[in-house]
């Protein structure tokens, strides 16, 4: 069974008329098959990430279709995981001693 984060479940059940960036953890499914499904629902694969994970951008009304893909371990929002936030270095303090 695929894990769906709370925001993904909400988008699946009540999609808005906008796109969303999601992270798909592949599990037992091949990336080419998932890429084909993403493109078929009007989305695109934005990046291949570590740990057999894809970042995709899809219309929210297509989230329910992605939830039907057998073999995915998880579907989460990219924002939930902080992927691509670009501000990680702001929290770092460098010691120049």
Write the layout of secondary structure elements.
Layout: E1 3-4, H1 6-13, E2 19-25, H2 31-40, E3 44-49, E4 53-59, H3 63-67, E5 74-77, H4 78-81
Parallel strand pairs: 1-5
Antiparallel strand pairs: 2-4, 2-5, 3-4
**Which architecture would the CATH scheme give at its second level?**
2-Layer Sandwich
* Domain module tally: 1
E-strand count: 5
CATH level 1 class label: Alpha Beta
Number of helices: 4
Order of helical and strand elements? EHEHEEHEH
From the alpha-carbon coordinates, what is the Rg to the nearest angstrom? 15 Å
Poorly predicted ranges (pLDDT <50, ≥5 residues)?
85-94
Work out the strand percent: 25-35%
Strand order of the largest sheet: 1-5-2-4-3
End-to-end gap:
50 Å
Structural class: alpha+beta
Mean pLDDT figure: 86
Shape: globular
Helix % is 25-40%
């Amino acid at each position: 069974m695929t894990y769906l984060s709370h925001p993904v479940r909400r988008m699946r059940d009540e999609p808005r008329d906008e796109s969303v960036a999601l992270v798909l953890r592949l599990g037992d499914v091949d990336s080419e098959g998932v890429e084909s499904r993403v493109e078929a629902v009007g989305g695109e694969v934005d990046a291949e990430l570590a740990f057999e994970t894809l970042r995709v951008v899809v219309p929210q009304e297509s989230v329910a279709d992605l939830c039907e893909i057998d073999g995915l371990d998880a579907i989460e929002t990219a924002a939930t995981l902080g992927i691509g936030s670009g501000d990680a270095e702001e929290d770092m303090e460098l010691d120049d001693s």
